[in-house]
Amino acid sequence: MIAQYASALLISDLHLTPSMPLTAQRFFDFCEKEAPKVEAVFIMGDLFEYWVGDDAALHSPFQLEVQRALATLSTKVKTYYLHGNRDFLIGKQFLSRTGLTLLSDPSKVKIAGHDYVLCHGDSLCTADVGYQVFRTWVRKPWVQKLFLAMPLNWRRSIANHLRSNSGIQYQRSAQQSSEFARMKTNVTLAACAAVLRDQNTDRLIHGHTHLPAHHQENLDAQTWQRWVLSDWDLDHPESTLPRASALQIDKAGLRYVSLVKA
After folding, report:
1. Is 215 a known ligand-binding residue?
2. Which of the seven top EC classes does this enzyme belong to (predicted)?
3. What's the pTM value of the predicted model, to 2 decimals?
């Protein structure tokens, strides 16, 4: 378990990209305004829409701007990062440049006197067997080493192809509108129960599914609480409601804090 904190903010699934400038600007504002007011910030995966290697950031003005914002934030408050399914290739160079501390997935933390298990959430979606096979392969060190040895333009092409492959992409609209797809790409109670038993606690926080809510769960006499983090999207009002929020934990309890400007 990492150090204990009296207060924290947790965010996930911002999917930052130059094509979503309003969402990006709200993240920059978050780093300057809300984040420094707590003892720790946890960024729980998919900060970026995709990540093809730390070297790629050196060729992207946008990613360099995000890097600078994180580097400034980490001088003010302890900032942690968990890999997501879009940016699991974030490596030591980026962490060094930003001052972020990488957490394993899952990780157990103590905030405001309570233990929580934190994870991105994709590993809990065990009903999607095809994705879990894909996830296992791309997390192998030798596969990542081979991919990162490719020319940058090759890596970007592969990433774009994978993003367009509905078999491994979690869509924000059409795919999530299907009840079957929601069941397939949502977490399973069995997976949640297993990770909580392993970590010996009864509070779970994750992102990934883009279905923010607080759940009281039970399975085979095991009970627990589960909080799901929201994704962020302030750039597509024509197709979805603007959304951006953080989960705040302190002595007053847990609450979702809206970051959508009125």
Report:
1. no
2. hydrolase
3. 0.91
